[in-house]
Sequence to fold (194 residues):
Amino acid sequence: MTEALFPEEAYVEILKVDDPYSPTGAAAGSNIQVTTDIDNFEEGGFERETEYRPFFNNAKVTIKKQQNPGEITVNAKITRALWDQILWGGTGSDFTSGGDQENYRLIFLVTKETGITAASQALTGGFDHYRKIYANCNMTTFNPKLEVEGMLEGEATFSIPPTDEAANPNIRAQISGTAAFSAVGSFTASQNWD
Fold:
């Protein structure tokens, strides 16, 4: 990567597991581009802890522990039912609590390439790209707020384990100043990105 990347070059997309996928995000009921709903995107966690155990004669053994789960936090203006639907497991515009907690895939992309409209679409070589794909995310909190001199917005937190129940990776990073990347692909119970 050679140039700094800025917020106006960022894209965010969300897709529920087994929902239809469109490489451009244009198909009805498919991956939703929430780019202009988001004003903050933050990743935390995923620590890889190590422990060093001393032995006689100044020997040390490194014990590598499992990687911790991580969190994604986004701050979004509330212009649609999507965020509440994800937390409460609802559908439509009138729903109640107690629905199923579904898995979601979040994609965060920052790129110098022009003409991009979806975080999951193919990226051309020769441009700076930073794309992170987070599969099997579960929303753990959604806190709407409205201030007198503000707008209705909410902070959503998603929890993600680094691997799934079959030890397959849930996180994918595509970071380059020269390489091209293909479109991300479908998100189903058996595949996370392609």
